[in-house]
Amino acid sequence: QVQLAESGGGLVQLGGSLTLSCAASTRTFSTYTMAWFRQAPGKERDFVAGMPWGDKNTFYADSVKGRCTISRDNAKNTVYLQINSLKDDDTAVYYCAADRSVWAGVRSRDYDYWGQGTQVTVSS
User: Fold this and answer.
1) Which pLDDT belongs to residue 113?
2) In whole angstroms, what is the distance from residue 26 CA to residue 20 CA?
3) Which whole-number Å values give the CA distances from 35 to 71, 99, 118, in the listed order?
4) Phi, psi for 8 (deg, rounded to 5)
5) SS3 for 88?
6) Dist. CA 13–CA 27, nearest whole Å
């Protein structure tokens, strides 16, 4: 079992930036696909960004492409999500997800491990 713990959420100004962190409780962190999803009230949980294991490739949803960066520090068992130029539509609960497959893709049902989520609220 892998436990994931997100941090870094909160109230952020419109147009501002935010960095979320997710710490994983596994010594084989480097062999997991890591991803971020988000869920706004009344909506489905959507893919935001992801990184396969053993790979420098990154994948982003169209809604955040160009203003979002996912990165991982395998030595710290941590994955990060930086979002710039925050918009109202970025308000959601952000979830960290992990899976043992090389690349789990963009569907939430394909990820085995989830954090509890951290709320991000963009305020104007």
Assistant:
1) 97
2) 19
3) 10, 9, 14
4) 105, -5
5) helix
6) 36
C-alpha 10: how far from its chain's center? 15
Consecutive sets of 10 residues in the chain, 124 residues long: mean pLDDT of each? 95 97 94 96 96 88 97 95 97 97 93 97 94
Q: Which two tokens stand for residue 13?
A: 């100004």
Residue among 82, 109, 96 nearest 3 (CA): 96
Sheet of strand 68-73, all strands in order from the earlier edge strand to the far edge? 4-7, 18-24, 78-83, 68-73
Rounded CA separation 17/19 (Å): 7
Confidence (pLDDT) at 23: 97
Q: How far is CA 14 from CA 22, 24, 39, 91, 100, in A?
A: 23, 30, 18, 10, 36
CB atoms within 10 A of CB 66: 9
